[in-house]
Amino acid sequence: QAKIAGRNTIRFFDPELQSVIMTRLELEADLLRAMPLKEFLLYYQVQADDQGHITGAEVLIRWRHPRRGLVSPAVFIPLAEETGAIVEIGDWVMQMACETLRGWQQHPRMRQLQLAVNVSAVQFHQPDFTDKVCRLMARYGDIAGLLKLELTESVMLDSAEQVIQKIQILKNLGLRFSLDDFGTGYSSLAYLKRLPLDQLKIDQSFVRDITSDPSAAVIIQTIIGMAQNLGLEVIAEGLETKEQLALLMRYGCRHYQGYLLSKPLPIDAFETLFEQGALSLSLKQALI
Ligand code: C2E
Ligand code: MG
Ligand code: MG
Ligand code: MG
């Protein structure tokens, strides 16, 4: 068939490619309707320290698609970035995180919990991004110190001056910043040193390989050493096994997130886990 079609003919009917394109167009169209139809929801994944204390959670979005079920953000966030829908989605996530934090302020123990929110580079680079966050902080009262914004190294593709300035404006309000998926991007050390960050988040690919791949272990040690020199906290993501935890602890990492502690949970389940203090026990067991 290919021979008959000849050399200069583009064949449109590669069924696999076509179904990929269809899915994509369909998802893009559905994505535009997802917000008014209230199809997004948030999961919360525990972040804990080396004492086994839950310090807070990362907020992770899910899309409850009418036909496809729960769609992963790994699938729809890139689409939302291309169409621009990410701005509205990001605004919603941030506002919901503020609602949650405000609710927790009524509880004597939950009021210290922090939330980490993922911010897309597209969202961060909107000219009114800082204004929007400032307005949210004014509206929600004293919660800025409990919010941590996770950026990825891709924000650095833009002018350093602007990125630094935006971060600084929000830091002055009390927000904190973490660099997500660290080690997978292109950030130069010179640039990194200038960013007013609070935390580096070691990418889960290094954590996954830490026990089997000596170079992953070396990279993690290097990141931790660098973070210490720059005065930054380090958190490891994607922690799944006690063996990984043991190595991370030995290397001096003091903050963790991953299935070993808990999968991302709906808010009720997260609150229950926190109230039962169930985590401390399992983490302590892991440390022995
Ligand atoms: P991320 O921010 O690096 O989040 C970590 C991802 O790893 C999450 O996937 C989480 O569920 C998963 N994970 C957590 N613990 C483990 C573990 O122990 N093992 C393994 N294998 N995976 C683990 P998720 O929820 O599918 O999110 C994927 C990505 O989508 C996130 O990566 C983040 O970049 C993006 N994302 C999620 N929510 C939002 C959001 O509200 N806004 C934006 N802009 N991006 C978001
Ligand atoms: Mg993240
Ligand atoms: Mg990450
Ligand atoms: Mg990631």
TrEMBL record:
Domain EAL: 24-278
UniProt protein name: EAL domain-containing protein
